Fold:
Amino acid sequence: MANSTIPLRNITSTGGTDTTSMTRRSFVKNTSGVSAASLLGTAALMTNSDEAQANTEWAEWFQGNYRLMSDDEKQEAVVRLERRYSSEYGKKVSVDTKPAEEGVLFGYALNIQKCIGCRRCAKACVEENNQSRGDQEIEWIRVLKMEKGGFDETKMGEGYPDGYGIEIGGNAYSAAGVVGEGEHYYDPKLVPEEDFFYMPIACMQCEKPPCVKVCPVRTTYREPDGIVVVDYNWCIGCRMCIGACPYWARRFNWGEPKLAKEDMNPETHYLGNRPRMKGVVEKCTFCLQRTRNGRYPACVEVCPVGARKFGNLLDPESEVRRVLANKRVFRMKADLNTYPKFFYYID
Amino acid sequence: MKNIVSFCIDYVLYLWKGGIKYWAWLGFLWIFVLFWAYGNYLQLSEGMIVTGLTDQVSWGLYLANFVFLVGVAAGAVTVVFPAYVYKHQALHDVTVLGEMLAIAAVVMCMLFVLNHMGRPDRLWHMVPIIGIYNFPGSMLGWDVIVLIGYLLLNVVGGFYYLYKKYTGEPLNNNIYLPIIYVAIVWALSIHTVTAFLISTMPARPMWHVGMMPIRFITTAFAAGPALIIIVFSIIRNNTKLWIKDEAINLLSQIVVWCLGIALFLTLSEVVTEFYHPTEHSLGLQYLMFGHNGLTKLVPWFWASMIGMVGAFVLLLIPWVRKDYHLLPWVCGVAFIAIWIEKGMGLMIPGSIPTPIGEYVEYSPSWVEIFNSLGNWAIGFIVLTILLKGAIGILLGEVSLSNHSKQASDTAADDVKKVRYADA
Structure:
């Protein structure tokens, strides 16, 4: 596809408050009195405004499951979406359809020893992936603040003596290392905090994803490069996948997503960070709009301590494979047999 | 064909013949439908954000009611099964009423599922050929099949019976009995599959237990006949159709034994989870005792327990079961207790804590409550209409012979079969 040269392409400057940042509605309103043609900075994208918009949405409603579309149908869908997004966000938006590359299986490794809990990853993710903001904020990455182990001498006498005074258990424990005790709403002045360590979570891109199995319409599925994606236009919003995910990695658009024009990242992928609509599920895609074009996910790029590693699991020289070869790794909830392609490790 | 047309005409005309109570009841239900319309308007225009659901607790009141009502629909088999397998004459006479209840319950189930969907406009994606139907992989796919199948079986079986009664022709048992027997097994399948819907999710340890289907079925076979006893009592008190005591007696026995088994299963689960509590017991702990001051579900759980135990103990007493004025009230308690148990006692705590240990409480919003009450109201309107017509036909007041203005004497033969000495 022509879209594959993404990094340098089509990045419209959105610095000022020029006509390109008008919403479709305000545009229509403002031009009702004056000559419309004179204002059309992004004219080609906005012709016929409301009617075109309605037609676009109507056609979108009829489109099929992305994976089963022919190349022509995909192209039509992309053109439709690009037109709608460009008009809605007042800038040139591209929707990539680059498929998975052969011989690539994406994997992720996170150094739990290095993470300082700054949550730059979560923020970069939101900015990159066009999540809803404000009071309907959606974050795909959650960082769990975990208590460090501490054993308190004063608790030593607090066992469970039975009738004979023989201790049958103790209370000299703390919640150290219990994932379920992790706190992901922490808000300190400085990180890392002394008595804690941090464990970021997001979609684990399972090889045996329970979420995919339960989807009644196959709108969420595994791409050949191992990424579990959602076709937002096919999702019926039943939330079976949210119930099935053991990592709480899936989010639902309870209302119309709130994404301001100036916040919108115009370089999108159909299966990745293109803007979502209300009533559908979304999740981390390893930034496939970036990674399929040879870039790192936004969270890897932004991590100030290099705790995040990403690469091709099929390439022995990739960073992630080198982590697997040389570090002690573990996977979250391994007992559930989901085979995450997201590994935690320590040096 | 002509007979079918006159059947439809007579059926519909009969619906307009009712007393003040009948119309007041329907009018009362329609009030809820108005709120329902407004609630649905809000939810469809604003999205699910008008509900109390969150990413943490994303299955709530709608799905809880759905699960419960699948049980009620399946519970109708407690009328059909004794009638056709054990040849229970008193239930045999009124089997069709059980089928009508099943139809109404499935209609409610479908309304609740529609409310639960984030994109009901895209439901066509589930239709094979034009969409994708993930079968047999998706449990939801199984559920849709068994529910639609059950609806069809009951519509076809029920209305075939009524039509034959209407025309006065004998039933063709080669057609009718297979439908009945398939429907009996099918009834079990709908609640089994609905239990699998949640018990096949290792991510939710509270649901991930093998006893889920049998727990569902025992509670269903308590709640279903409990509602049927209430409906039968109302019919006995307000229409000319007299349902024999034997019918109610058997149903109340089914209620008491199924309640007993359900309580036993609950006890087994509590012992298993609490002897050495693991992380997997956190949902049940939260439900029964709360967590760090979060106790929204605690009163519901204990209310449900008291209701179920109380109803069970009372129904064990023979004279309570034979007191036909008291019995519907006890059944009402059992019905509500099981409704709580399925909703606030199972669906909601299944999501609390979340798979990463977060405790977020859930309360339904007004929109959810309006929509849920409205779905119930619509279901009861459907039930009332179905029962009204069915009773008219069982009584012989709606019949082909009446339609063709023949002497009402011939109709009296039909009446005899179902009408027993009026009280």
About this structure: Chain B has one domain: 2-418. Residues 406-423 of chain B have pLDDT under 50 and may be disordered. The longest helix of chain B spans residues 245-275. The two ends of chain B are 38 Å apart (CA to CA).
